[in-house]
Structure formats: structure tokens, C-alpha cells
Amino acid sequence: MSLSADSGQAILLTLQLATITTLILLLLATPLAWWLVRTSSRWRGVIIALITLPLVLPPTVLGFYILLSLGPDGWIGNLTQSLGIGLLSFSFTGLVIGSVIFSLPFAVYPILYAFEMLGRRPLEVAATLRANPLDAFFSVALPLAKPGLLTAAVLTFAHTVGEFGVVLMIGGDIPGETRVVATQIFGYVEAMEYEAAHRLAALMVAFSFVMLIALTRLRKRAGAALP
Amino acid sequence: MSTPPISLQLALQRAEFNLAITITVPARGVTVLFGPSGSGKTTVLRCVAGLERASGQILIGDEVWQDDQRQIFVPTWQRELGFVFQEASLFEHLDVRRNLEFGLNRLRIERQAARVALDHAIDLLGIGSLLDRSTVNLSGGEKQRVAIARALVTKPRILLLDEPLASLDIARRKEIMPWLERLHRELQIPVIYVTHSLDELARLADHVVMLDQGRVSASGKLQDICTHPIMTMAAGDEAGVVIESTIQRIDREFHLAEVSFGNGTLWVRDAGVPAGAPIRVRILARDVSLATSAQGSSTIQNVISGVIESITNEAHASQALVSVRCGEAMLLSRVTHRALAMLQLHTGSPVWCQVKSAALID
Fold first, then answer.
1. Which residue, of A198, B109, B203, B285, has the greatest Cβ tally within 10 A?
2. Would you call A129 and B51 a contact, using CB atoms and an 8 Å cutoff?
3. Residue A88 sits in a domain of what CATH number?
4. How many CB pairs under 8 A join A and B?
5. Three-state secondary structure call for residue B156
6. How far apart are CA B168 and CA B92, in angstroms?
7. How far apart are CA B229 and CA B215, in angstroms?
8. Which domains occur in chain B, in start order?
9. Choosing among A123, A124, A128, which should be mutated to test the B contact, i.e. which has the most B CBs within 10 A?
10. What is the pLDDT of residues A112-157, one digit of tens each?
């Protein structure tokens, strides 16, 4: 199956976006989930609601507000302009910011769940064996939560690859900059190029399927009982 | 003994119960915290470890682990302790060897000294053959032995055990008990052992602190606690005494061992323990009858003379618990008030204790 240069570019950009988003979200979601599990702060409920919001909002609503805040009158826009970076709307960086927000619940929830399942006991054991809290986090909590981290990574990656609404709102479908697979397919369909759309769409189905199978395998190897 | 003891002063208010205790634990030997569930014994142990925080003071020898007046609270990871939890708590992402080395890697000691500490703990708990196994495939008893060794590897100042046998079935308990008894004989550090099992108490305790609803109801040496009214009440049908003694000689023909006791000797089943070895014998009050003379012909071979020291009433109005002093040692006997009246036995009466059964337990 041969792909057009446009499709190739879109695939490459999509993989770049998904990889960067996944890495950022793992770094962001892990401490966030850790805090959420251990805190007794009254803000916990509010923070969890905020994290869950992208799950229930239509991507267009989310994309619309991210676009506004990235724009010349938005707070992120003001910030980036005063820092001399310029505006991030309709740019790859803007797309990354949007994707991170959009996939936040997909990263936080599996890790949160893994930390919750862990309970306090392994950390208490680590403390009685002279491990300070940071040491215990890295040497006990993280390795034991590995299945959760894997799930978070795979879900975030797949979810980012599949996003459409947010990307369209803040990216604007610029070839080589913000045109990802999902928007490329939409473009092909609009232009009645069903053949090209088919190839790319079939690839997406196959990719998602393989990702989910890989997830089950990886989790099994990491010691989790359920996928 | 020059080493200062361990002193605990703890107060904690919870919805379920209030804890208010002052305990002094000797610097050597096993101190058992004994009491029903909800008596606060596990909470006390967790406070010593710093896993929970009560107000008060915790002094371990010359070290201060907590002193509210001086605003000192040493976090758990800086306390030189070994802790064994009720259920197996090995790290599942590490094999047995890595579990053992976990604490060791966090000590600032020479490689050679670490090696010695590791080998000693492995030998003490007999887990040399398990080192390369995954923790998932170990039996419950093996897991707890590894957990105890892991705690000992760090050369703690004190070993804390929170009902280490409670999550095991009877067969596994029997499997691990000899190792605990070996620890009891060989460990140079103080041990605080939480349990509600009389069997573990009889086998392992040197000192006992009895807790009830967050208070100390009685404390003292094992021998003294055994005859304490609060213990005999708590033990109920299992009330009895524990005697520490040595084996005098072995009778090969009848497979019995003779144990010196009070001002006489006791015959117990030969359990393969050689003559001269220190042993413990547990004698339940229900297995001791009283007689006014040393009857000649009876199947009861163990007859020891003594003097009645006290008579207390039992839960059922017909029953009495009699403490008999036999030289240095004490025996408990459960009899009926009717029998006491018919034999005219009172405090101070000389009696012969007929011991139906005495079990060698160590």
C-alpha cells in the first residue's frame, strides 16, 4: 500500500505530537496522581473535576477555549508574547499544549488507580528499611505502579493520535505544522479523494488495534492481572 | 546491665479508643504486647516505629525517637529499627535477595560488614536456598522468614514484630515457630512482639505487657504474669504457667525427659532436646489436680509438693483457681470449690500437685 507524500508528512507529525504529548503527560501526571492519592486537601475534589473535564467536554469546546487562551488576548498568549515567543495558536507547540490538556485524564487516571491499589503498606515497609520518602517513591512506588504507567502511556499516545476536534480548532490544519492524520483524512474526504482517505483510515484502525494488543501484553509482563 | 531500657510514654485519642500507656521494656529479651484486638497493641508498635504519631516520648536506650517537650520526632526511615508486618510485605518487584539487600543498600557501612550482616541474617532464618526465588512463589511461612531476615539485615537497635504469625495457617505457624524460638535465644537486641496468641506468648515472651482498651492492665516477667489474675482471666480455659528449666536426663526406654522443677522434677515427652539444654514447659491449670498426700499408685507420675498461696474465684461459681508455690516456681490448678471444702484446703495448706500433662514447648 503506497501513501502520498501528504499522508507521510501527516503520519510523521502525528507520531511526533503523540510522543511529545505522552512524555510530557507522564512527567506531569505521575506527581499529580501521587499527590492526589496522598493528599487530604479540600481542593482534591476540585482538581479531580478539572482533570476529568476534558473527558466529558466536546473537543470543540475544549479546543475553542484553548484557542482563545493561546490567542493574542488570552492569558497564555499574553504570557508567550511578553516572553518574546510570539503566539502559539496555529503552531505545533500550541497543538502539544492542547493535546496535553485533552489527554490529561487518560494519563492521570491509570496512574492514580495504580497508586491507590498500592496502598500505604509498601511505603511503610520501605520507610522501616531506611528509605526516605523520595527514595521510596522511586524504588518502590514507581516500579510497583508500572502497569498503571504503561497503560497511561499507551492510552495517552493512542488518544493523541486519534484526536480531531481540538487539533482542528487550535491547529488550523496547516500542512507540515499542524496537519495530523485525523485532519488529513478529513481533508481527503472533503476533496472526495476516498482512495487516499481509505488508506490512511485503515492504517489508523490497524494501528489502534495493535496498540491495544501491545498494551495487554506489556501489562501482563509487568505483572498486572487485568488489562 | 548497663544498657538503658526502652521507655514509652504514649497518648492518643481516637474515635474508637483512647491510648494512654507508660511502658518500660528491658534492653534485652522479648517483650510481648498481649491483648485482645482493639486493645491498642499494634498502635503502640506503630508509634514506636514512627508509622503513627501519638503524643508523648519514645526513648530507645540512649536515643530519643520522640519527645514532644523538646519537639523531637525522628521520621521512620531515620530510626534504626526492624519491623515485621502482620501480612507478608515483601516487595513483589524484587526477588528474595534484592528484598534482603533493600535496607542494606541504604546503610552507610562497609561492603564487608554488609556482607557479614546479610550472611548472618540468611543463616539465622535458614533462607539460603530461597535467595534467587521470586517472592510470589514463596509460602506464607517462607515470606515471613524472609521479611524477618530483611528487617535484621539492617542491624536494628530494636526488632518490632506485629503479629507475624496471624496471617498464617496452623501448619505454617509450626513451620516458622522454631525460627522465632531461635531468634529468641540468639538475638542480642530487644524485641517487641505483638500477639493475642497464648501459645506464642508462652514460647517467646520474657516479659509481658498486657493491654486492654488502650491501657496497661498488667506487666511483668512471664512467670509472674502467668499467675496474675488478669492473665488467668484473659486466658480462661488456657490459663497455666510456663516454666523455664533444663533437661536433667533422657529416659530412652520410655521416651521421656526429666526436667528439674521447683523442689522436684517433672517427666515430659522426649522431643529430641539433649540433656542440659534450656527448655520451656507449659502446664495448664486444668491439667493439675491437688491431693493431700503423695498417693503411691496412680498413673499420674508427676507429683510435686507445694503450699497453697492463693485461691481465686473463677468465672463459673463452682470453679476455683489455686496458686501453689513449689519452691521457686508456681503452679496453677483449677479445681471445684466443693473439692477444696471436702479436702479442707485453704491458703497455707500443704498440697501435692498431680500434673496430668506437661508440654515441652521449647
1. B285
2. no
3. 1.10.3720.10
4. 59
5. coil
6. 19
7. 16
8. 6-236 (3.40.50.300), 240-360 (2.40.50.100)
9. A128
10. 999 999 999 999 999 999 999 999 999 999 999 999 999 999 999 9
